[in-house]
Amino acid sequence: MKNICIYDTTLRDGAQSEDLNLTVTDKIKIALRLDALGIQYIEGGWPGSNPLDTAFFQEILSYELKHAKIAAFGSTHHPATTPENDTTLKAIVESGVQACSIFGKSCERHARDALRITPENNLDIIRNSIAWLKNHLETVFFDAEHFFDGFKRNKDYALATLNAAAQGGADALVLCDTNGGTLPHEICHITRAVREALPTISLGIHTHNDCELAVANTLTAVRAGAEQIQGTMNGFGERCGNANLCSIIPLLEIKEGNYRCLPEGNLPLLAGTSAYIWEIANLKPFARQPFVGKSAFAHKGGIHVSAVNKDSTLYEHINPETIGNRQRILITELGGRSNIISLAKRFGFHLDKDEPVVKGLYNELNRKASQGYDFASAEASVELLILRKLGRRGVRDFFSLIQYHISEVRSTTDTQPYVEATVKVEVEGVEEHTAATGNGPVNALDSALRKAISHFYPRIKEMRLLDFKVRVLQASDGQGGTGSLVRVLIESGDTTTASWVTVGVSSDIIEASWQALADSITYKLYKDEHEQRHKS
Question: Between β-strands 228-231 and 259-260, what pairing exists: parallel, antiparallel or unpaired?
Fold first, then answer.
């Protein structure tokens, strides 16, 4: 079993994604979660380049990490200074870390045109920068910027930059596909050439995804001799992103089988770590992300589900639980009774496809699907429907609607309409009549309903709205336009369950929203009671 060093750069290179903005608190939370996963190095940022990164390095010193070492990032010293007088190198040392990566030009063209120095001077800068840092830090990695492009232009000079870094005392030489344009066969050829030229020093690989080859290029480099992998969680990064560690780690540990990237037993933490970082980043997870995505092991077609029920390996390339994910069976118009049987089994019911209840559920779900209910997306709604039909204990009417009323007023002097919702519901045998204002009719309706039931179910205050989607489906009267049916999907979350999605369909957008909202709150209350029963 060969150990691979995972160097995570989510907090630095990943943070350069155009839609990713992390606070110091966010970065601390992610660093602690990466440490729990078992990552060896966590690159925290570029100290001294901005107040946020500087604050992160100050704050992280107060935490005791179990697995990871925090690394700083920077560049070789400025051509006009010496290492001991360079502000970048001094900031790295003053950050309090014991490991760092600094990048330098490994392409002769970049040395001449970007730095406007001679190639020989660039070699001295690389060598001297690393040597100075090695006098102050335990570990120094050299990121050979534009290495593959430089190697193709001038092989001898690209290798000379690596030799200069090695002479300075670099602990590893990281080959960077900075522009993300190198193909796997080129990565293989060049990495092997470097391995032959420098047989004793550790090599690393840092790829970008501009050609959607970052993962493939990383695997190729490992096979060719790379021992350190630089990448990001969920593939975050500038332009098209960096090499996705959520794919690379299981590919090496499971598919290749002879590599160890995480401490033994930690691989099942991967999917949860991925989801946690999406959440901290305040970004919607990519459902079709391989291995860790919500749809990675989702089955929709009835033939597929029938086969999976017999043997999951017939349509799944790995057991999803090995990386902390799970199999999902979707209910759609494409799914047969096998889908219902599989879902019921997940809830503790063992049914036969010829049982009347299965036939009834199949007909009801298909009827609703034909009306526009998207049960493939709204798993919470379909779970409630099935459990109610099967008589599952705990799924009950926590509240029942008597009446709701929405009033909305806007005059020419108002910048926004004034919206008020009144709700009359029966809760545990008591009639509650409440009113609330809101930022729009759905928010007002949600607030009024919560107000009516919160003193019966205090934990409803934990629940929060994550997403709200409306889609026009078809005309209920055949005329189209504003009389069309609409589908509302509501995604909710709380402190214990990651998230759940519910659905409503109607020609009235308020009614469709009520259906989805009522299901969402009912699902929360059902999960809470189910959890409480298990604890007791």
Answer: unpaired
Fold of 2-280: TIM Barrel (3.20.20)
Paired sense of beta strands 298-299 and 328-329, if any? parallel
Contact by Cβ (8 Å): 2, 258: yes
pLDDT tier at 13, thresholds 50, 70, 90: very high
Q: What are the extents of the domains in the chain?
A: 2-280, 298-371, 400-535
Residue 262 contacts by C-beta under 8 Å, 6 or more apart in sequence?
6, 37, 38, 39, 249, 253, 269, 270
| Cα angle 510-515-516, degrees, rounded to a multiple of 5 | 100
153: which 2 tokens? 């232009």
| pLDDT tens digits, 446-474 | 999 999 999 999 999 999 888 888 988 76
Phi and psi angles of residue 247, each rounded to the nearest 5 degrees, phi first: -95, -40
Which secondary-structure segment (H or E) carries 148? helix 147-153
Strands of 500-506's sheet in order across = 464-475, 484-493, 500-506
Contacts 24+ apart (CB under 8 A), 251-256: 251/215, 251/219, 252/4, 252/219, 252/222, 254/318, 254/322, 254/323, 255/318, 256/219
Q: For residue range 72-115, list pLDDT tens digits in order.
A: 999 999 999 999 999 999 999 999 999 999 999 998 888 888 88
Report phi then psi at 197, rounded to 5: -75, -30
- In CATH, what number does 400-535 get? 3.30.160.270
Tokens at 349, concatenated: 């019911």
Q: Give the Å distances, CA to CA, from 468 to 19, 226, 405.
A: 20, 45, 21
Q: Classify residue 175 by its DSSP letter.
A: E
Going by pLDDT thresholds of 50, 70 and 90, the confidence category of residue 211 is: very high
pTM: 0.75
The tokens for 487 are 């589908």
Instruction: Assign 3-class secondary structure to 236-282.
Output: CCCCCCECEHHHHHHHHHHHHCCEECCCCCCHHHHHHHHHHHHHHCC
